[in-house]
């Protein structure tokens, strides 16, 4: 049989120190129909170190002609000391003027099979490729297993199911951080730890006695490209209202349709604030009043105790009423710290100290709601089952896998750490916040529905979608702009591969994914799949699913995560816990305020956590960036170029608006929104 010359280009990863290998790399090229192959041959240059970090090695091999291979098999043999795993980015093969690209982007430990780069759904693949896909999925389900079903004594009880990895070190290699992420995270932890030690020493000499003294706890300049005047006017009604409206939990409030029975504010309480010729009832009916009610979210949640003591930390089940005034400003007009008790109802008409302390307690409730609900649960925790199942149920060549992977791969690493540093009962980060994280997460999961992650629906349901009634709501404007752009991108990619609803129904790998998420990831305990269907039956349903997962892992995570340092760096702006129970009307003094605020230890842990989590990685991939070539079809390249162009226009629109703002809203610039949850 005639032999032909194949040119083979092999790229070793540049982001993993252990990604190079001294093992022998063998490759087998398999024809399109699977009936012919070259047999394994070595890729090796005599007396040269091949497969080193970041290098592209080039080989020539004359062998049996099988055409451009449909599938390649890679096998490692003969490591110098036992197994020597290798992280291969890709292999490119040229035959004459033709070439094919094989995206690997995975660790090779023994043997793997990879199809060429064109994505495909299983029912439209050849018999041979379908068998290969099935074998790959079976291996993945073994390698990426669910944690055994938790019991009441386990941390994962009543929570979405996680990966079977108790700690970061237990993770499968594919989910561990690249070198640059690991170095960056360790650097930030080290910086803040040293700052905390220095600050504690200073506080021993000069204790915190005033608001300005809290600045001593935070001297590091943080270059996260956010506005430097974010906390300006923190103690004013306008400053507080601005942060509630456009802060790190902008979906926490709703338009007020009627006041809860346990919220005891009356028209007389706020008449002087609203002014003449109107009333509370009229302002509510006109859509100018908004409510942030934490009672349902916080009342059942356990409270923490001060580090290793029996001293409780306090966080009220607070209710806040906000009003859009004639200038379009969003202002607090009534705060109640104990539901049903008017002794704990405050308005701007109260004494300066009473009103300020009430705002501090309200912001403490906001902090707990933000950290455990909007941030940890609604992005990190809820995304894990969707991410795990994608790696379990899809082969590398599946279009949904290729679409989702840049947005889901990094999640498992930070979540594994969170289970020891945030959720574990004795962790310092947990103890620095008034509410118990595990208790909060279980409460939030109980009634959660998948459609809650659809922010456009939430904005409408919560009455936040009307710019005329609620002006200056920059989160709504920017998030919905990015929502529409991302949906357009996802729709084009999905429709390139799925031409009808029948294609969706017949995709058994997709159906396996939906079932795995719904029944093993979410409904593992009581059958409640929380609105996630165990079958996907239409193209629109598939677009909704992929779009929601991508948006939550990128845009929504960016807004609830990267503003933390700006928000929490100055503790009185938004305390993580209080040391005294809420005051009654007339009890507040400056001494009471300072005694209520966190002490130096709690404050420093809260600041350190916020600093570390808010740091952008120097080599981050942002919206529209795709360093790994999972897709190679020209049609997808064109779709991505259109996507990037629309994102660029959106960023320019946001920047132009911000030119006229005293407090620019920069958190959702597309070039500052990472693709995935990595911190």
Automatic annotation (TrEMBL):
Q: Which Gene3D superfamilies match?
A: 3.10.450.60, Catalase core domain, Lipoxygenase-1, Domain 5
Query: Boundaries of each Lipoxygenase domain copy?
Result: 119-679
**Which PROSITE patterns does UniProt cross-reference here?**
LIPOXYGENASE_2, LIPOXYGENASE_3, PLAT
Give the UniProt keywords, A-Z.
Answer: Dioxygenase, Lipid metabolism, Metal-binding, Oxidoreductase
Q: Which residues form the PLAT domain?
A: 4-122
Against SUPFAM superfamilies, the record matches this protein to:
Lipase/lipooxygenase domain (PLAT/LH2 domain) (SSF49723), Lipoxigenase (SSF48484)
Q: Output this protein's name.
A: Arachidonate 5-lipoxygenase
Q: What is the lineage of its organism?
A: Eukaryota, Metazoa, Chordata, Tunicata, Ascidiacea
């Amino acid at each position: 049989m005639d032999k032909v010359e194949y040119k083979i280009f092999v790229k070793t990863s540049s982001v993993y120190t252990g990604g190079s290998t001294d093992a022998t790399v063998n490759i087998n090229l398999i024809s399109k129909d699977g009936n012919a192959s070259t047999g394994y041959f070595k890729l090796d240059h005599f007396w040269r170190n091949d497969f080193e970090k970041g290098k592209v090695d080039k080989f020539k091999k004359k062998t049996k002609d099988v055409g451009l291979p449909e599938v390649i098999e890679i096998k490692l043999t003969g490591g110098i000391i036992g197994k020597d795993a290798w992280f291969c980015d890709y292999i490119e093969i040229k035959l004459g003027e033709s070439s094919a690209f094989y995206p690997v982007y995975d660790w090779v430990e023994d043997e793997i099979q990879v199809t060429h780069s064109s994505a495909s759904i299983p029912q439209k693949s050849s018999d041979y490729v379908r068998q290969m896909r099935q074998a790959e999925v079976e291996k993945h389900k073994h390698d990426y297993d669910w944690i055994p079903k938790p019991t009441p004594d386990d941390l994962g009880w009543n929570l979405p199911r996680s990966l079977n990895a108790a700690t970061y070190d237990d993770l499968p290699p594919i989910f561990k951080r690249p070198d640059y992420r690991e170095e960056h995270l360790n650097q930030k932890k080290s910086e803040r730890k040293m700052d905390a030690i220095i600050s504690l020493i200073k506080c021993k000499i000069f204790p915190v006695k005033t608001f300005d003294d809290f600045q001593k706890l935070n001297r590091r300049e943080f270059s996260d490209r956010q506005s430097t005047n974010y906390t300006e006017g923190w103690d004013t009604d306008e400053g507080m209202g601005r942060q509630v409206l456009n802060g790190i939990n902008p979906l926490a409030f709703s338009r007020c349709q009627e006041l809860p029975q346990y919220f005891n504010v009356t028209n007389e309480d706020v008449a002087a604030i609203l002014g003449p010729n109107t009333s509370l009832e009229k302002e509510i009916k006109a859509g100018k009043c908004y409510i942030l009610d934490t009672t349902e979210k916080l009342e059942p949640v356990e409270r923490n105790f001060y580090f290793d003591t029996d001293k409780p930390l306090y966080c009220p089940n607070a209710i806040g009423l906000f009003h859009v005034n004639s200038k379009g400003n969003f202002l607090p007009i009534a705060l109640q710290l104990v539901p049903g008790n008017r002794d704990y109802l405050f308005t701007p008409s109260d004494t300066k100290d009473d009103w300020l302390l009430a705002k501090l307690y309200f912001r403490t409730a906001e902090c707990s709601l933000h950290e455990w609900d909007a941030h940890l649960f609604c992005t990190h925790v809820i995304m894990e089952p969707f991410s795990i199942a994608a790696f379990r149920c899809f082969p590398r060549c599946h279009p949904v896998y290729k679409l989702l992977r840049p947005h889901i791969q990094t999640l498992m690493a930070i979540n594994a750490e969170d289970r020891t540093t945030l959720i574990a009962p004795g962790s310092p980060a947990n103890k620095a916040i008034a509410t118990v994280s595990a208790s909060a997460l279980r409460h939030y999961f109980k009634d959660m529905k998948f459609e809650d992650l659809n922010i456009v629906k939430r904005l409408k349901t919560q009455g936040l979608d009307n710019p005329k009634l609620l002006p200056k709501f920059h989160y709504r404007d920017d998030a919905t702009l990015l929502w529409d752009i991302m949906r357009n991108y996802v729709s084009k990619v999905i429709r390139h591969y799925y031409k009808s609803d029948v294609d969706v129904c017949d995709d058994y790998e997709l159906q396996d994914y939906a079932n795995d998420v719904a029944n093993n990831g979410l409904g593992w305990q009581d059958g409640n799949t929380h609105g996630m269907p165990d079958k996907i039956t239409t193209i629109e349903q598939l677009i909704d699913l992929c779009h929601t997962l991508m948006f939550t892992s990128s845009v929504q995570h960016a807004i609830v995560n990267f503003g933390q340092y700006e928000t929490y760096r100055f503790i009185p702006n938004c305390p993580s816990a209080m040391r005294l129970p809420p005051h009654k009307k007339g009890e507040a003094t400056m001494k009471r305020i300072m005694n209520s605020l966190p002490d130096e230890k709690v404050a420093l842990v809260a600041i350190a956590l916020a600093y570390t989590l808010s740091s952008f990685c120097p080599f981050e991939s942002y919206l529209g960036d795709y360093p790994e070539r999972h897709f190679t079809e020209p049609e997808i390249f064109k779709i991505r170029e259109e996507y990037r162009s629309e994102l660029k226009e959106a960023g320019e629109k946001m920047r132009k608006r911000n030119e006229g703002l005293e407090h620019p809203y920069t958190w959702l610039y597309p070039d500052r929104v990472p693709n995935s949850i990595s911190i």
